[in-house]
Here is the input.
Amino acid sequence: MTDTASHRPPASAIALASALQELARADRLLLALDFDGTLAPFVDVPRGARALPESKAALDRLEHLPDTWVAYVSGRPLSSLETVTEADEDALLIGSHGVEIRFGRDGVSLDLSPEEQETLGRLGEALQALVDAIPGTKLEIKPVGFGVHYRLVAAERGPEVGARAREAAAAVSDGLTIRDGKDIIEFSVRGANKGDGVERLREYTHATAVLFAGDDVTDEDGFAVLHPERGDVGIKVGTGETAAQYRVADERAIATLLGLLAQAREAHTNSSTD
Here is the structure.
């Protein structure tokens, strides 16, 4: 593992393995996981993304263990997250960076105010006009905002697209929540972040320890609410500065770690019932 871009020295692979062994012994364990770029490789057609089979198998094992919860925390709209995770009715889902929440069969209504609805309409018109003017960009409609994708635009033009999108959005409102991600910039009329989502999940499950893993800059809000001194573990996937204690290279590394965690958690559970 390397962490040359991080503002903290890297923790070793041995330290991460030790942390996972300790995590497996938690009284109540919550796994809160980003999806794209963490469990699933990025694809050009977002609805076609799926978790790597090894990750899916490990998560299936974990969520069937006592006092163990698996949750997905994503910038995707809840409807999209439900599809790509192949979630059942009991799944714990945080969508739209914490704005949308579905704990089992119960969701949370957005209930946008008339002012928010009016701003959302004007924002969509402004960003659609921008996307129409820049080949290779795409507008994603989200429950409380929009995302301007520029993955298919030449890399050197990415900053220009982001700047022009900010200008277009600023002409609509100066009260928007703005998030930069990997080849996307998002604008929302209501603020929330993945840290809020992790905290809601912790409260709901009464978890005594949390594993949060993510690859994007928006996942830093999730890492920020972790408590390593209490046994929480944060894992950054890929490069970039991070507040996470640990770093792995890619989605396949996460799949391997989840398999190890499932094995350790099963062993702990079995020993506790002997």
Remarks:
- Confidence is low (pLDDT under 50) at residues 1-6.
- Helices lie at 13-23, 53-63, 78-85, 114-133, 158-170, 194-205, 220-224, 251-273.
- DSSP finds eight helices and twelve strands in the chain.
